Amino acid sequence: MSSELKVDTISEKTTAAGVTIDSVLIKDGNVDGVDVSNTGLILLSSNTPSSSSGITVDSIFTSTYTNYKIIYTLTASHSGTATIQMRLRASASTDTNSTYTSGMRTFRINTDNEFETRDDTQDRWDFTGVDATQSNNRVSIDITLFSPALTARTAYSGTFFTDEITSQQFGYMGGTFENTTAFDGLTIFPSGGTFSGQINIYGIAE
Fold first, then answer.
1. How many CB atoms lie under 10 A from the CB of residue 152?
2. Phi, psi of 180 (to 5 degrees)
3. Which of 5, 72, 84, 174 could cross-link 157 (Cys pair, CB 3.0–4.6 Å)?
């Protein structure tokens, strides 16, 4: 014999005790002490640049999250080969010190071709590039940014896919900022021309 209970609200009998269902305590938005309303990726900033020379987001890295996700898809408009670049910011000031290091491994899909690019002690991080001979180049990137708000070296790793119309490529990348600076913002921009699309920044809940 089965039973079914239909109610809109279950309230605790004892103040501040919560409600226990099959040995699982539900109390103040927590399930067995875990805040289930704040798990996974938490969208912090959604940006839709249009024919833009870059975006800047400040006060995004805080003590609430240790690590962050940056996910974007952009269409580039440019007359020369361009890369998508990023710098970190603190107190509304962009850090242009030559302490950014990065490396990238790229695989071309339409040809049997692989190559590496490495930047040591640059004044920005270089993500994937787009070819000047194609129009409507599209770049999609998924980056994890580690500990930007801590007084420690900030690092990143990620993957990318570039659709250059007649040539596609994908790969992986990573790098670090070699000073122990605590940051609260960033700026993302093309090395030349403009871009349009979507750039989202997420906190990774712990």
1. 14
2. -90, 70
3. 174
